[in-house]
C-alpha cells in the first residue's frame, strides 16, 4: 500500500504535471518508432530551369564521349564536338491511380436544388522491394535523349575519306540521321620551328 500512499501525499497540481509529462513522453516514443523505409524517389515534374540544366549536362556528357571516340580514329587529330539536344532523357514510372466521382443532389424546402460534383484523382508510384528490403519504383519506360544536331571540328576533316568516317561514327554512336551532322576541318595546333 505504500504505492497509493505516495500519491496521496503529492499535491494535485504536481500529480497532473507528472501525468501530463508521462503522456507527452509516450507520444514522442510512439512517434519516434514509426518505420522509415528507404525508397528511391522517382523523378518529379521539374521546372524549366532544371530541365535546361539537365539538357546542358547531357549535351556536355555526350560531346565528351564523342570526342573520346573520334580522337581514337587514325588521322583525326584534335577534335571538338558540340551536341544539341531537343529533349533530355525521360523515365516513366508505374502508377496506381485511384479516381472517383461523387455527385450529391440537394433540394431545400424552398424548392431550390443544387448538385455538388466532387472528383478525386490520386496517383501513387508503384514500389517493389528487393532482397534487402529496400523499395524502388517500377520503371515502365526510359526514353533516350533526342539529338537535334552535332557539329564536329577535327584537324583531319580536310580528308574526304576521313570526314566520311567521322560522320558515320557520329551517326552510329548517337543514332542521328546524316543530315544532322556537320563535320568541319579545324586548324592544326602543332607549332613548327
Automatic annotation (TrEMBL):
NCBIfam families: spore_III_AG. This is Stage III sporulation protein AG.
